[in-house]
Specification:
Number of strands: 9
Structural class: alpha/beta
Radius of gyration: 24 Å
Number of domains: 1
Order of helices and strands: HHEEEHHHHEEHHEEHHHEHE
Number of helices: 12
Distance between the termini: 62 Å
Shape: globular
Largest sheet: 5 strands, mixed
Strand content: 5-15%
Length: 314
C-alpha cells in the first residue's frame, strides 16, 4: 500500500511538472504572438517568415541552432499583364492628379504615359513589401552572430563555425567574391523575369512611384514602410534602377559591422559604404556611423546575387 501511495505522489508530481511546463510554454507563445503575431499575419510567405522568426529566437550561446529555411518565388511579367493593367494605371494617375498630394515629378512623368512602368513598378514595390514583411519588417534578430554562419576550418580539419568576427573577416577576405566586402547577408525573396511583350530597358522611375503610392489599406507610402527599422531614412541606391533585359532579384539585405567597428572604421570601409547608400544629411550620417548593422530590401540583377551577398538564403 505504501508503494502505491508513493507512486501516486510521483504521478501527481509528474502531472504538476507537466502542467507547469504547459503554462510556461503557453506564456512564451503568448509573448511571441503578442510581439510578432501582426508581422506573421501580414507576411504572405508565412512558412518562411515563421522559420526566420524561429531562427532568430532559438539561439544558444549566441549561435543559431535552427538555420532558417526559405524558398524564393519565381514570377514572370508579360506584355499581357501590362495590357490588362494599363487602364487601371491611367485611372489611378488621373485620380491622383485630381486629389493632389503627389510630387510634380511623379505626376508629370506618369501623367504623360509610361503606364507599362507604372504597373511594373507597382509589381516590384509589392514584392519589396512582401520581402520586408517576410523578414519581420526589420524586427527579427537575423544574422546578429554573423560569424557563426561561416566555416573557418582549414584543409584537413572537420568543418566548424568561425568563433568570432575577426576570424570570419579573415575567412571572408580569402574569398575572391567576398574580398574586401562588408559581411552582407541576403534572403532571396523572389525573382522577377520579363517575358514576351515587355519593352527591354532600364527603369529608373521606381523611387517616385514608391514615394507617391501608399501601401494598400494604409496612408503610409511604400518608401516610408520599406525604410522603417532599416536605419536608412531614404530610398537611396537600393531602388535607383533595374533592367528588364535581365531577371531581377528582390532581396532582404543585412550588412553587418558587429564586432568589426574599429577595424572597419580604420579601413574606412563603413564610411565608404554609407556614402554609397545615397543622399544622407549630416545628422543621418552620424547615426549610421554608430549603427552595428544596416538592413533593407532591394533589387539587384539576379546574376549579380553572389557578387552582392556574402551569404545567401533562398
Amino acid at each position: 500500500m505504501k508503494l502505491f501511495i508513493n507512486n501516486k505522489k510521483g504521478f501527481q508530481a509528474g502531472v504538476l511538472v507537466a502542467v507547469i511546463l504547459v503554462i510556461i510554454s503557453a506564456a512564451v507563445l503568448f509573448g511571441v504572438f503578442q510581439r510578432y503575431g501582426k508581422i506573421l499575419g501580414s507576411a504572405e510567405d508565412k512558412s518562411c517568415s515563421f522559420s526566420l522568426m524561429l531562427s532568430s529566437m532559438t539561439k544558444i550561446g549566441g549561435k543559431v541552432t535552427i538555420p532558417p529555411e526559405c524558398e524564393h518565388k519565381i514570377h514572370t511579367i508579360t506584355g499581357e499583364n501590362i495590357s490588362a493593367n494599363t487602364q487601371r494605371a491611367r485611372q489611378t494617375v488621373a485620380s491622383q492628379q485630381e486629389l493632389g498630394g503627389r510630387t510634380s515629378e511623379y505626376l508629370s512623368y506618369y501623367g504623360a504615359g509610361h503606364s507599362d512602368e507604372w504597373y511594373i513598378n507597382e509589381f516590384m514595390a509589392k514584392e519589396l513589401r512582401k520581402c520586408w514583411d517576410m523578414a519581420g519588417a526589420g524586427t527579427y534578430d537575423l544574422f546578429d552572430e554573423w560569424w557563426s554562419f561561416f566555416d573557418c576550418s582549414k584543409p584537413g580539419q572537420a568543418a566548424h563555425s568561425c568563433d568570432g568576427p575577426e576570424s570570419a573577416w579573415e575567412k571572408l577576405n580569402t574569398s575572391y567574391t567576398n574580398k574586401g566586402k562588408l559581411p552582407t547577408f541576403c534572403i532571396l525573396c523572389s525573382s522577377v523575369r520579363f517575358g514576351v511583350g515587355v519593352d527591354k530597358k532600364e527603369i529608373n522611375s521606381l523611387i517616385p512611384w514608391i514615394e507617391n503610392n501608399p501601401v494598400p489599406k494604409t496612408k503610409t507610402s511604400y518608401a516610408e514602410y520599406l525604410t522603417a527599422n532599416s536605419f536608412i531614412g531614404n530610398t537611396g541606391q537600393n531602388y535607383q534602377e533595374y533592367d528588364t533585359n535581365e531577371p531581377q532579384a528582390v532581396i532582404y539585405v543585412k550588412v553587418q559591422k558587429t564586432g568589426l567597428s574599429q577595424l572597419l572604421t580604420n579601413l574606412g570601409r563603413w564610411t565608404n559604404y554609407i556614402a554609397s547608400i545615397g543622399d544622407v544629411d549630416e545628422e543621418e550620417e552620424e547615426k549610421l556611423e554608430n549603427q552595428k548593422y544596416i538592413q533593407y530590401t532591394g533589387i539587384v540583377d539576379y546574376n549579380d546575387l553572389y557578387d552582392t551577398c556574402s551569404y545567401l538564403i533562398g
